[in-house]
Amino acid sequence: MTRRTVRIAMNGVTGRMGHRQHLVRSILALREQGGLDLGNGETLWPEPVLVGRREHALRALAERHGLTGWSTDLDAVLADDSVDIYFDAQVTSARVEAITQAIAAGKHVYTEKPTAADLAGALELARLAGEKGIKHGVVQDKLFLPGLLKLKRLIDGGFFGEILSVRGEFGYWVFEGDWQDAQRPSWNYRAEDGGGIVVDMFPHWEYVLHELFGRVTSVSAHVATHVPRRWDEQGKPYEATADDAAYGIFQLEGGAIAQINSSWTVRVHRDELVEFQVDGTHGSAVAGLRGCRVQHRSATPKPVWNPDIPATESFRDQWQEVPDNAEFDNGFKAQWELFLRHVALDEPYHWDLLAGARGVQLAELGLRSAAEGRRLEVPEVTL
C-alpha cells in the first residue's frame, strides 16, 4: 500500500473547537490509525500546518503534538504549492477574507460555520469557489451524531408515518465569568465581534432540519439578551450586546412544524444538552447527542387529564431505547474523512459553501424576524 500525503493549512486551531475536535480528534486521530484508507491501495496521510496569529500558542501546540509545520504568515502558507487544503476555524469576522485568499490561491477549502457574517458574503464565497473549480465543504457535524444517525435510520425506515412536528431544546447555563469562569469565550456575547446564539446555532438547525425533515420555508423568531452583563477572560466586566437565547418556529417543506429553543441561560433538565422530539402519525422519537428513544403508536398509552390525583405511571419508562446497531466514530472526524475522500477521489460531497450559505441565510432572517416581529419566508438559495 502506498502513502499519499495531503497538507492541510489549519487556521484557528488554538481555539477550543479547532484544537479539540478538528486537530486532535480528527486529523491527529487519522494519523494515529495510520492514515485514511482510500480503498485503492493508497493511504491518505494528513499533514497539518498550524496557522494563527499567536506565535507562542502555535509553537506550544506543535510541540505538544510532535508537529513541525506552523506559521503566523497566512500569505506564505497559501503561496506554498505543497499545501492542498485550507481549513478555517477562526472567529466568524475573520473568515471571509481568509477563505477568499485561499480560494484565490487555488486551495480546496473546508470551513467551520457560519461561513460569513451575512448571506451576501456567504454566496460570494460559494460563487468564487465555483469559478475557481476548487472543492469546498462546510462542517455540519451534528448530522454525524449517534443520536441523529439513529433518528435518520428511523426516518428512512418509515417509522414515523407522516411527520407532524419537531421540537428541539438546546443549551445550558454559561457562567457570567465573575464568580465562576465562563465556558465560552467573551466574543460570543458581543454582536460587534460576530457573537450571538442565532448566528451560532441557526446554521446548525438549518442543516439538521433540511437534511432530516425538509427545507425550511419560513421562520418566526424571538431573541433575547437575558444576561446583559458578563466578565471577560481578564476578569473585566463588559456589556453583552449579542443575543444569548433564541426561540424559533420553522415551517418545513411538506408541512411539518419545528420549534427549537436555543439558550445559554438555561439550566439542564433533560438527558442531553440537545434533544429533538419528533412526532408522527405512527410513532414518536426523542433523540439526543448519543441516545434515541421511541414510542410506536401500538404502544402509546392513553393518559387522561386529571389534576386532582398524582400521576400513576412513569411516562419516560414507556419509551424504548433504539439500539446502536453500528459503531459510531467522532462526528467531526467522520465528516473530515468524507471531505478528504472528496478531494482525493472526487467522491460526491454536497455539504458545500452553498449549503453553508443556507445556514447564514436562516440566521440572518431569524434576526430580522425578531427585529420586525413577524414571520418571514425563506427563499431557496441559489447562485
Main β sheet profile: 9 strands, mixed
What is the topology, as strand order, of the major beta sheet?
A: 17-16-15-14-8-13-12-9-18
Instruction: Show unreliable segments.
Output: none
Sheet-strand content, in percent, reads 25-35%
* Order of helical and strand elements: EHEEHEHEHEHEHEHEEEEEEEEEHHE
Q: Compute the CA-based radius of gyration.
A: 22 Å
Report helical residue fraction.
25-40%
Average pLDDT for all residues:
96
Number of strands: 18
Number of helices: 9
Q: SS-based structural class? A: alpha/beta
- Shape from CA axes? globular
Query: How many angstroms does the end-to-end distance come to?
Result: 41 Å
Task: Please characterize this protein's 3D structure.
The protein has 383 residues and is of the alpha/beta class. 31% of the residues lie in helices and 25% in strands. The protein contains 9 helices and 18 strands. The chain has helices at residues 16-32, 55-64, 74-79, 95-104, 119-132, 146-156, 197-212, 331-345, 353-372, and strands at 2-11, 36-37, 42-51, 70-71, 83-88, 108-111, 136-138, 163-171, 216-224, 229-231, 237-239, 245-252, 257-263, 274-280, 283-287, 292-296, 320-321, 376-377. The strands form 3 sheets. The protein has a 9-stranded mixed sheet with strand order 17-16-15-14-8-13-12-9-18. β14 and β15 form a beta hairpin. α4 (95-104) runs parallel beside α5 (119-132), α5 packs antiparallel against α9 and α7 packs across α9 (353-372). It is globular, with a radius of gyration of 22 Å. The two termini are 41 Å apart. 42% of the residues are buried. The model has no long low-confidence stretch (mean pLDDT 96).
